[in-house]
Amino acid sequence: MQLDQDQNWEKRMADIETKISSTPLIVEEPGLNTTQPQRKWKTGGIPLAFVLVLGLLGLLAWGLKKAQAGPVDSGLAPDFSLTGFDGRTVTLSELRGQVVIINFWASWCPPCREEAAYLEQTWRKYKDRGVVFIGVDYVDTDKEALAYIQEFDITYINGPDIGTRISQAYNIKGVPETFYVDKKGQLRGVHIGPLKAPELDQKIEELLAEPDPGN
Amino acid sequence: MISEIGLIALSIAFLFSVYGTIGSAYGGLRNRPAWVESSRNASLLVFPLLSLSVLVVVYNLYVLDLSQAYVADVASRAMSTFLRVTALWGGQQGSILFWAWIMSGFVAIVLLRKWERDRELIPYVIAVSMLTTTFFVGVVVFITNPFARLWHVPGAADLTTSVFQPINAMPYIPEDGQGLNPLLRHFGMIGHPPTTYIGFTGFVIPFAFAMAALITGKSQEDEWIRTSRRWTLVAWIFLTIGLILGGRWAYDVLGWGGFWGWDPVENAMFMPWLTGTAFLHSVMMTEKRGMLKRWNMVLIILTYALTVFGTFITRTGVISSVHAFSKSALGPAFFIFIGLTFIGSLSLLFSRWDALKTEHQLESFFSREAAFVLQNMLFLAITFAVFWGTVFPLLSELFTGTKITVGPPYFQKVTGPLFFALVLLMGIAPLFAWRKQAAHSLGRAMLLPLAASLGITAIWGYSHRMHPAPIFGLWLVSFVLLTILTEFWKGVRARMQGRGENLFLALSRLIGRNHRRYGGYVIHLGVVMIALGVIGDAYFKQETQGTLTAGQSLTVAGYSLRFEGLNSYPGTDGREVIEANTTLLKNGQTVRPMQPRRDFFIVQEQPVTVPAVYATAGTDVYIMLLDWQDDGRSATFKIYINSLINWVWAGGVIMMLGTLVAAWPPRDGQKETTYQLRPQVFGPQPSTGD
Amino acid sequence: MKRKLLFILAFVLAASLLTVMIVNAQDGQPRIPTDDEVNAVAKKLYCPVCPNTPLDVCETQACKDWRAQIRDQLAAGWSEQQILDYFVQQYGERVLGEPQRSGFTSMVWVLPLIAVLSGIVIVWQVLRSWRLKRAEQVSSEISTPNSSDRISKELRALVEKELKEID
Predict the structure, then answer these.
(1) Is A160 on the interface with C (CB under 8 A)?
(2) pLDDT beyond 90 at B54
(3) Which of 3.40.50.880, 1.10.530.10, 1.10.8.640, 3.40.190.170 would CATH assign to domain C29-98?
(4) Cβ <8 Å between C105 and B545
(5) Are A133 and A201 in contact (CB under 8 A)?
């Protein structure tokens, strides 16, 4: 019995408390008008806060998409001009009608060494059949790059990627990566990691077999 | 078989979490206590279920069950049992399970407490905290499952990781596991994830309370703030420990003689710590003066949002960092979570914006209230600067296409002056009285510390002529140190004179009577010590590098390192050790032999440089073996002279001690002295809604 | 005899002069820069490949090559600024540890400054409005002698009703 009464009492008190706290205590006097400057803050501040948060989320979404995207592997191959270590220059868009193999490498990259000999060998085999090899040197030092070229006796054009512009255009995630460009200038795939025989030969044969684009 | 049990427990935990979320929300909105009660029970069960899953993973690691993909990833035969078991949080899958487990533990604690005046909040506290738990458990179940196995699918070049067997696939059990990244095999890295996760997840509870208070419209009440304060204090302590352990690890293992690199992931941890500290202070304003309720709500939401943001950039690699976990499919899931959290809490906050209004009255700019407001502003400014520098590379790439690096030079230059102002305020503000501080009494209180610190700095600056910046820093450290000590002395002397107690008794009773205040002072003392270490690291560091043959020496700052020879031997944990025998001399006197090493972990093919460190109170002589030539006849060394660095670690320990003192519950029969200073009213009046 | 001696003398003289000249020429060659000098420049750069790693502490082969390049450039007499510019041109702006203060990147420096200034202004405004509210309330309290009127009628009625119910 006592317990019930106590519980009722507590409930009563809680009810009263709730009622009191939701009832206005002080009558609003017209003199004490402090709501106007606050309203100004509110109407301006809230949309601004939302815009900022949505902006941040948009930025993060963009960043996430970029981080998860792999190298470019379809569509028109991004155009570029490369000046080789030996002084010659090559521009991708001028190579229409030929199959182009673009290989990203660096002297400090051990897997690149694994494929270097195979690349040069394949170049020599196809160079007179309308295939162009371009080697793009990714953030390397001239000294080491030239030593690398000499070591593997590479004869196709190789040049440094100044300012990493080409690497960024192709969105490479590392080295070595090899991009296949067909006679029409379209990207037909990318090979990540060192190439092993006869992968490159097969791909080149496939692309060479395609009809030449009309002039 | 055992792994199946773990998987089942995990899946049931997920189902219970979902039910707990939906059931409590429904029960709260439709006023159906039965639903709330059953949701509460379901939520309570999530913790034991996840504990079972965690135990199974630990067991798998312990017995090295290599049929499990996770075990094959983070463990190896060469690792010791202790390291294998702690590899629970060494990889992505295990660490998220660990995170979810801790979170469910906190929820269980909250649900088991006495809910006196906050009964209305229960449904929504459960709903919000279980929504978060559901997300993390869901990620573990569906995306990064620690019970997945390795399969060989015919035709595929690589192995497939999957929980269930793909069609035609054969199970693959490797000979040995990959093993934990050698860099992570250090006491700091073993302690850092658990403490950091406890810190991060701890903030969910105050956040859930804040959301519940907003939803129910009970945000005017003080009680939820008091509860939030205690939870925030616990989360804050662990976050502080996590930060210090992380720094210690970086110092010992990464080999660049520093402990904080302003890397995005480090900043991600630091930002919630900053806003959390701001909250711990501004909540005092609420308790004593009933002020800043709306602001406190904003701070809690901001702190939690920053922890979610932090875990997002750590685990998805959106902003490039040295700390990044291996990339996985977590990105989109985390993005949805972070989007919902930000927009949901912001909408809720603004829907109740007016209801949060409280009457603020300030009597004087020259008061502790004003000091607190200024302090909060400084914390927020630093947080903004850190945030801006962290996301700016992303912004720059979006708008200009060029990638840039925002490194330590930016962070130091921008936050340096702000930290200076903050530490200065930390010294002065406790001298301010509430409501109105009389200028002359403040002057009196500051006089001795000010004069003494100026004197010390002048003498020191004169004898060590240098760049002005560190001189300001050293003045600051000595000034604030003296003000804090003066506060202790005032209290102790009053007790000694008034009650005739001796020094130790007076000190212990003084602290015992007012834990929070004097615990806070001890924490501030720790901060000053850390500040000293940081100044030393920023301005007084010296280094040198050189190649030596046997008998030759490398010299820097009066120290000299003589190379004797190299030797190699196989070490523990599957490594090959190359060790250099050297002798350290100071001003010509032999100090002791030092053995810097370079360990090579055979399985991972990864080298780790282990420095040899000679530590004193004033300096660390930090020696690294970088390279060797000619079969070990010559070797390259780097020496860092890290002045005052040990004050950082000492300061960290003092901060932890101070937090223990401040958080210590008062003795029975002794109520916590919280002064109820309400706005002064003239004549009989009801108090304004507090 | 005398002529032979004279020849020998002249020869020896010429030989020693030549030796001295050769030795002097050796002294004129540039000395190899010390590791510390290389590190002083490398400190201001970041590894172009590894994320957020300063060039002087990075231990990969690539970084060793870059430090060797800095050494060669220093030996060739390049100034620090020239080396930094070269790295930026070759590898992009991300090799700089400290963001430039021009162009879009200047925003990284400007915004925190604006934030701090606005923060100070906001703090000032907030404190001032609190202070004014205080002043207002004090003056209005003084001017309303009969304070019991301020309790709303609603509340009075409610309290009286509850009091009746309790008894």
Answers:
(1) yes
(2) yes
(3) 1.10.8.640
(4) no
(5) no
